[in-house]
Automatic annotation (TrEMBL):
It holds the Pfam family ABC-3. It is found in: Cell membrane; Membrane. This is Metal ABC transporter permease. It is a multi-pass membrane protein. InterPro entries: ABC_BtuC-like, ABC_TroCD. SUPFAM superfamilies: ABC transporter involved in vitamin B12 uptake, BtuC. The chain crosses the membrane at residues 12-36, 56-82, 94-115, 135-152, 173-192, 198-215, 222-241, 247-265. Belongs to the ABC-3 integral membrane protein family. The keyword Membrane applies. The keyword Thylakoid does not apply. It comes from Deinococcus rhizophilus.
Length: 269
């Protein structure tokens, strides 16, 4: 049992386990909506679209997370506006806004006098470098997201599966879409800063997609996605400790393997 207990003597490993559990639950809450609405590209897009907010905060000497949140909200609203006004599919709107925001960030960065490693730390993330303050922030955001999605669950459900009916009974489908995109942006900013872009997208999409193959309802899908994310996170952390590999990438590989197993199991039905 030493392989199970030895890593727990290190505080950074225990905090990483806690972070993976919290982030898995948080990503499951929004990941189900991401997969059901065909927004799988948005996680990676959002994580890059926050660059101008990061650079702006850096140049102004402000808080990087606040700058990233502002950029994420603007990106979410931009995606919603482009999708509604142009009639293009959501993935096209995501691509247009994402590329524009990322290019703006690169231009701003090129005008910066020096490059700060703070930006790379934010964008890359490291689950083994999580602090107690990060965990409390993650818990707070998880509670907020659960409250918002719980309050608008029925409205979001109808707007997602039958927007025509939703409009007919007077639901503001456009505003509900904007709300969902903003919540996704909030989750992406927090999870990228905690565990990095690759793991954030994996927990947001891969675990939820695996759950989608096995679950029959949205609530079961969220619960299963959280469970699969936690399973992949814990197994991946222990493997990375034993094999001395990158924690985030190892967890992503485990999550991918779990998805393949779910796919094979689904095909046997």
């Amino acid at each position: 049992m030493e392989w199970l207990t030895d890593p727990l003597q290190f505080d950074f490993f225990v905090r990483a386990l806690a972070a993976v559990v919290i982030v898995s639950v948080l990503c499951a809450l929004v990941g189900a909506w991401v997969v059901l609405r065909g927004l799988s590209y948005i996680g990676d897009a959002m994580s890059h679209a926050v660059l101008p907010g990061l650079v702006g905060a850096l140049l102004a000497g402000g808080n990087l997370i606040l700058g990233a949140l502002v950029a994420a909200v603007l990106t979410a609203l931009g995606i919603g506006a482009v999708g509604q006004r142009s009639g293009l599919k959501q993935d096209s709107a995501i691509g247009i806004v994402f590329v524009g925001m990322f290019a703006l960030g690169v231009v701003m960065l090129s005008r910066a006098p020096t490059f700060s490693t703070d930006l790379s730390t934010f964008l890359i993330g490291n689950p083994l470098g999580v602090t107690p303050a990060d965990l409390w922030s993650a818990l707070g955001v998880t509670a907020l997201v659960a409250l918002i999605l719980g309050a608008f669950h029925k409205e979001l459900l109808l707007a997602s599966f039958d927007p025509t009916e939703a409009r007919a009974i007077g639901l503001p489908v456009g505003r509900l879409t904007h709300l969902l995109l903003v919540v996704i942006g909030l989750v992406v900013v927090l999870t990228v800063q905690l565990v990095g872009t690759t793991l954030s997208v994996s927990l947001l999409v891969t675990s939820s997609a695996a759950a989608r193959l096995l679950a029959r309802s949205l609530k079961k899908m969220m619960l299963l996605a959280a469970g699969l994310g936690i399973l992949g996170g814990v197994v991946g952390l222990y493997l990375s400790y034993s094999l001395d590999t990158a924690a985030g990438a190892t967890i992503v590989l485990v999550n991918t393997a779990v998805f393949v197993l779910a796919l094979l199991f689904r095909r046997r039905e």
